[in-house]
Amino acid sequence: MKYDTVLFDLGSTLIKYENSSWDELGRLGCANAYPILEDIAPIELTPESLWENFHNAIDQMAVSHNEDLSEIDLVAVTDSILSKLGINSLDGLARKFIDAYYQPITAQITLLPDSREILEKFEGAGLKIGLVSNTIFPAEYHRREMKRFGIFDFFDFAIFSSEFGFRKPKKEIFFKALELAGSEPNRAIFVGDRMVEDVGGPQAVGIRGVLKRVDGRDYSAPVAPFQTITNLRELEDIVLG
Asked: SS3 for 225?
Protein backbone atom coordinates (compact mmCIF):
# COMPACT_ATOMS: atom_id res chain seq x y z
CA MET A 1 0.00 0.00 0.00
CA LYS A 2 1.40 3.40 -1.00
CA TYR A 3 0.17 5.26 2.10
CA ASP A 4 0.05 4.22 5.73
CA THR A 5 -1.36 7.48 7.16
CA VAL A 6 -4.25 9.79 6.27
CA LEU A 7 -4.45 13.16 8.00
CA PHE A 8 -7.66 15.18 7.96
CA ASP A 9 -8.66 18.75 8.59
CA LEU A 10 -11.95 19.04 10.53
CA GLY A 11 -14.08 22.07 9.60
CA SER A 12 -15.57 21.94 6.06
CA THR A 13 -13.74 18.65 5.53
CA LEU A 14 -15.53 16.29 7.93
CA ILE A 15 -17.88 18.62 9.83
CA LYS A 16 -19.65 21.68 8.44
CA TYR A 17 -19.35 24.61 10.84
CA GLU A 18 -20.63 27.37 8.57
CA ASN A 19 -24.31 26.53 8.20
CA SER A 20 -24.68 30.19 9.17
CA SER A 21 -22.16 32.97 8.51
CA TRP A 22 -19.45 33.51 11.12
CA ASP A 23 -20.68 37.07 11.65
CA GLU A 24 -24.17 35.80 12.42
CA LEU A 25 -22.79 33.08 14.68
CA GLY A 26 -20.64 35.63 16.49
CA ARG A 27 -23.63 37.83 17.16
CA LEU A 28 -25.66 34.85 18.36
CA GLY A 29 -22.77 33.79 20.58
CA CYS A 30 -22.46 37.20 22.20
CA ALA A 31 -26.23 37.39 22.69
CA ASN A 32 -26.09 33.99 24.40
CA ALA A 33 -23.18 35.03 26.63
CA TYR A 34 -24.56 38.49 27.38
CA PRO A 35 -26.63 37.49 30.45
CA ILE A 36 -23.43 36.33 32.18
CA LEU A 37 -22.11 39.91 32.06
CA GLU A 38 -25.29 41.97 32.12
CA ASP A 39 -25.54 42.33 35.88
CA ILE A 40 -21.84 42.96 36.57
CA ALA A 41 -20.84 45.32 33.73
CA PRO A 42 -20.11 48.80 35.14
CA ILE A 43 -20.90 50.41 31.77
CA GLU A 44 -23.91 50.23 29.49
CA LEU A 45 -23.44 47.08 27.48
CA THR A 46 -25.58 45.57 24.73
CA PRO A 47 -25.17 42.25 22.92
CA GLU A 48 -24.24 44.18 19.76
CA SER A 49 -21.56 46.30 21.45
CA LEU A 50 -20.24 43.16 23.13
CA TRP A 51 -19.96 41.46 19.74
CA GLU A 52 -18.17 44.47 18.22
CA ASN A 53 -15.60 44.48 21.03
CA PHE A 54 -15.08 40.71 20.84
CA HIS A 55 -14.95 40.59 17.03
CA ASN A 56 -12.49 43.50 16.74
CA ALA A 57 -10.19 42.12 19.41
CA ILE A 58 -10.04 38.69 17.75
CA ASP A 59 -9.34 40.26 14.34
CA GLN A 60 -6.54 42.43 15.74
CA MET A 61 -5.03 39.48 17.57
CA ALA A 62 -5.17 37.32 14.44
CA VAL A 63 -3.21 39.92 12.47
CA SER A 64 -0.54 40.10 15.18
CA HIS A 65 -0.18 36.30 15.14
CA ASN A 66 0.07 35.94 11.36
CA GLU A 67 3.85 36.22 11.21
CA ASP A 68 4.79 33.36 13.53
CA LEU A 69 1.49 31.44 13.17
CA SER A 70 1.11 31.15 16.93
CA GLU A 71 -2.46 30.39 17.95
CA ILE A 72 -4.64 32.91 19.75
CA ASP A 73 -5.17 32.29 23.47
CA LEU A 74 -8.92 32.83 23.53
CA VAL A 75 -9.19 32.90 27.32
CA ALA A 76 -6.48 35.58 27.53
CA VAL A 77 -8.14 37.61 24.77
CA THR A 78 -11.51 37.36 26.50
CA ASP A 79 -9.95 38.38 29.81
CA SER A 80 -8.48 41.44 28.08
CA ILE A 81 -11.80 42.38 26.47
CA LEU A 82 -13.65 42.08 29.77
CA SER A 83 -10.98 44.14 31.52
CA LYS A 84 -11.34 46.93 28.95
CA LEU A 85 -15.08 46.87 29.59
CA GLY A 86 -14.37 47.32 33.29
CA ILE A 87 -15.31 43.75 34.20
CA ASN A 88 -13.07 41.85 36.60
CA SER A 89 -12.73 38.34 35.16
CA LEU A 90 -12.69 36.30 38.36
CA ASP A 91 -13.80 32.73 39.08
CA GLY A 92 -13.32 31.56 35.51
CA LEU A 93 -15.62 34.21 34.06
CA ALA A 94 -13.76 34.31 30.72
CA ARG A 95 -14.15 30.56 30.26
CA LYS A 96 -17.84 30.73 31.21
CA PHE A 97 -18.27 33.46 28.60
CA ILE A 98 -16.54 31.34 25.93
CA ASP A 99 -18.65 28.30 26.83
CA ALA A 100 -21.85 30.32 26.38
CA TYR A 101 -20.54 32.05 23.25
CA TYR A 102 -19.81 28.71 21.59
CA GLN A 103 -23.21 27.12 22.22
CA PRO A 104 -24.96 28.58 19.12
CA ILE A 105 -22.00 27.52 16.99
CA THR A 106 -21.98 23.89 18.04
CA ALA A 107 -25.79 23.71 17.89
CA GLN A 108 -25.84 24.30 14.12
CA ILE A 109 -22.94 22.14 12.91
CA THR A 110 -23.57 19.04 10.80
CA LEU A 111 -21.57 15.99 9.77
CA LEU A 112 -20.63 16.17 6.10
CA PRO A 113 -21.72 13.36 3.76
CA ASP A 114 -19.48 10.27 3.59
CA SER A 115 -17.31 11.33 6.56
CA ARG A 116 -18.06 8.27 8.66
CA GLU A 117 -18.01 5.92 5.67
CA ILE A 118 -14.54 6.94 4.44
CA LEU A 119 -13.13 6.78 7.96
CA GLU A 120 -14.53 3.25 8.30
CA LYS A 121 -12.85 2.22 5.04
CA PHE A 122 -9.48 3.62 6.08
CA GLU A 123 -9.72 2.06 9.53
CA GLY A 124 -10.60 -1.27 7.93
CA ALA A 125 -7.55 -0.97 5.66
CA GLY A 126 -5.31 -0.62 8.71
CA LEU A 127 -4.29 2.98 8.05
CA LYS A 128 -3.29 5.42 10.76
CA ILE A 129 -5.86 8.22 10.87
CA GLY A 130 -5.01 11.61 12.32
CA LEU A 131 -6.60 15.03 12.63
CA VAL A 132 -4.85 18.41 12.38
CA SER A 133 -7.25 21.30 12.90
CA ASN A 134 -6.93 25.05 13.33
CA THR A 135 -9.18 26.45 16.04
CA ILE A 136 -9.15 29.22 18.61
CA PHE A 137 -11.66 27.31 20.72
CA PRO A 138 -10.81 24.78 23.44
CA ALA A 139 -9.98 21.39 21.95
CA GLU A 140 -12.48 19.60 24.18
CA TYR A 141 -15.32 21.37 22.34
CA HIS A 142 -14.31 19.67 19.10
CA ARG A 143 -13.61 16.30 20.67
CA ARG A 144 -17.12 16.43 22.10
CA GLU A 145 -18.52 17.22 18.64
CA MET A 146 -16.60 14.36 17.06
CA LYS A 147 -18.00 11.99 19.68
CA ARG A 148 -21.48 13.36 19.07
CA PHE A 149 -21.23 12.44 15.38
CA GLY A 150 -19.63 9.07 16.05
CA ILE A 151 -16.28 9.75 14.36
CA PHE A 152 -13.95 10.35 17.31
CA ASP A 153 -12.92 6.72 17.78
CA PHE A 154 -11.69 6.40 14.20
CA PHE A 155 -8.77 8.70 14.98
CA ASP A 156 -5.46 7.53 16.37
CA PHE A 157 -4.72 11.11 17.42
CA ALA A 158 -6.01 14.65 17.03
CA ILE A 159 -3.98 17.87 17.08
CA PHE A 160 -5.83 21.13 17.67
CA SER A 161 -3.93 24.39 17.24
CA SER A 162 -5.45 25.79 20.44
CA GLU A 163 -3.62 23.02 22.34
CA PHE A 164 -0.52 22.79 20.16
CA GLY A 165 0.12 26.55 20.27
CA PHE A 166 0.68 27.01 16.53
CA ARG A 167 -1.63 26.74 13.55
CA LYS A 168 -1.38 25.37 10.04
CA PRO A 169 0.56 25.94 7.81
CA LYS A 170 3.30 25.93 10.49
CA LYS A 171 5.64 23.07 9.61
CA GLU A 172 5.96 21.90 13.20
CA ILE A 173 2.30 20.91 13.45
CA PHE A 174 2.72 18.51 10.51
CA PHE A 175 5.99 17.14 11.89
CA LYS A 176 4.12 16.41 15.13
CA ALA A 177 1.41 14.58 13.20
CA LEU A 178 4.00 12.41 11.46
CA GLU A 179 5.66 11.69 14.79
CA LEU A 180 2.36 10.59 16.35
CA ALA A 181 1.55 8.44 13.30
CA GLY A 182 5.01 6.90 13.21
CA SER A 183 5.09 7.68 9.51
CA GLU A 184 7.26 9.37 6.90
CA PRO A 185 6.13 12.29 4.70
CA ASN A 186 6.02 10.23 1.50
CA ARG A 187 3.76 7.68 3.22
CA ALA A 188 1.19 10.22 4.40
CA ILE A 189 -1.54 12.23 2.74
CA PHE A 190 -3.41 15.29 4.03
CA VAL A 191 -7.03 16.16 3.21
CA GLY A 192 -8.47 19.62 3.78
CA ASP A 193 -10.46 22.47 2.28
CA ARG A 194 -7.96 25.36 2.39
CA MET A 195 -5.20 25.84 -0.14
CA VAL A 196 -2.53 27.45 2.04
CA GLU A 197 -3.17 25.60 5.31
CA ASP A 198 -4.16 22.16 4.01
CA VAL A 199 -2.22 21.87 0.76
CA GLY A 200 0.72 24.26 0.95
CA GLY A 201 1.41 23.48 4.62
CA PRO A 202 1.72 19.69 4.40
CA GLN A 203 3.42 19.77 1.00
CA ALA A 204 6.13 22.03 2.47
CA VAL A 205 7.20 19.05 4.60
CA GLY A 206 6.73 16.42 1.88
CA ILE A 207 3.17 15.26 2.63
CA ARG A 208 0.88 15.15 -0.39
CA GLY A 209 -2.05 17.55 -0.03
CA VAL A 210 -5.53 16.73 -1.31
CA LEU A 211 -7.82 19.73 -1.67
CA LYS A 212 -11.50 19.19 -0.86
CA ARG A 213 -13.19 22.02 -2.73
CA VAL A 214 -15.89 24.07 -1.04
CA ASP A 215 -18.24 26.21 -3.12
CA GLY A 216 -17.48 29.91 -2.85
CA ARG A 217 -14.00 29.46 -1.37
CA ASP A 218 -11.08 31.42 -2.87
CA TYR A 219 -8.56 28.99 -4.35
CA SER A 220 -6.29 31.50 -6.05
CA ALA A 221 -3.24 30.76 -3.87
CA PRO A 222 -0.18 29.74 -5.94
CA VAL A 223 -0.20 26.16 -4.65
CA ALA A 224 -0.80 23.01 -6.67
CA PRO A 225 -2.64 20.23 -4.82
CA PHE A 226 -1.66 16.62 -5.40
CA GLN A 227 -5.33 15.90 -6.10
CA THR A 228 -8.59 17.85 -5.91
CA ILE A 229 -11.87 16.29 -4.78
CA THR A 230 -15.43 17.51 -4.29
CA ASN A 231 -16.59 14.70 -2.00
CA LEU A 232 -14.89 12.33 0.41
CA ARG A 233 -15.84 9.21 -1.56
CA GLU A 234 -13.17 10.14 -4.10
CA LEU A 235 -10.48 9.56 -1.48
CA GLU A 236 -10.88 5.79 -1.64
CA ASP A 237 -9.28 5.51 -5.08
CA ILE A 238 -6.58 8.08 -4.25
CA VAL A 239 -5.51 6.43 -1.01
CA LEU A 240 -6.33 2.75 -1.51
CA GLY A 241 -6.34 2.45 -5.31
From this structure: coil
Low-confidence ranges of the chain (pLDDT < 50): none
Tens of pLDDT, residue by residue over 160-218, are 999 999 999 999 999 999 999 999 999 999 999 999 999 999 999 999 999 999 998 88
The third-level CATH classification (topology) of the domain covering 5-17+110-240 is Rossmann fold (3.40.50)
**C-alpha torsion sign, points 33, 35, 40, 42:** positive
Are 181 and 128 in contact by the 8 Å Cβ rule? The answer is yes
Question: Which residues are CB-neighbours of 44 under 8 A, at least 6 positions away?
Answer: none
CA distances from 74 to 21, 96, 97, 135, 227 (A): 20, 12, 11, 10, 34
Nearest to 209 by CA among 227, 196, 222, 221: 227
CA distance 88 to 106: 27
Side-chain half-sphere exposure of 135, counting CA atoms within 13 A? 22
For residue 49, the one-letter residue type is S
- Contacts of residue 72, defined as CB under 8 A and 6 or more positions apart, other chains included, come to 58, 61, 62, 65, 136, 162
